Amino acid sequence: MEQHRTRPAQYGPRQSRAALPPQGRGGAAAARPVGRPTGPRAGGGPARAARGRQAGRPGPPAAREVRAPRTMPNPRLTGLGSGLFCAAVMVVLGYLDALLFGASLTVYGVLFVPVCLLTAVWVRRGDLLTAPVVVPIAFAVGLVTVAESGDGGLGGRLMGIVTALATEAGWLYGGTLVAGSTVIVRRVRLMRRRAAAARNRPPV
To answer: Would the pTM of this model clear 0.70, i.e. be above it?
Structure first.
């Protein structure tokens, strides 16, 4: 007779493994500190780059025009141009003086001083020495509009101009002095600028 071998039960019923605690599942999860954000830091990354692009982006043209400093006109006149400018302005001011103030020589002399200053400021650097020369000529040209004509002839007009030059010599000298002083200051600044540029020039 065959006897069936029966294998003795060496092991008892299988017991299900208990679930490991989170600390035992892996070192990476345990090593990561709890409560520390793993995403990008606040205020950094794309947000900071977006703010940088917005800051570097130029504003609209209207805003740029508002921010642009308002500067005074700064023309540059040649020697001949400065003489024509001064003479034309004095003629116009002489006509206005004759219309509004009855051809007052004092008003004419007062208006002559700022015109001399503008002429000396607006003449170009190469023609600086012409400003003190052209302003007395312009003063005499403008006197035609305010000088007394006497009998109304050419001789009377010339005598009126000579008389006005004699009586208003103070304003004539004052305006010429203002123009000369302005030219001297500009000339000194130009020489200093050239000397500084020569010192800063690298040796060849």
So the answer is: no
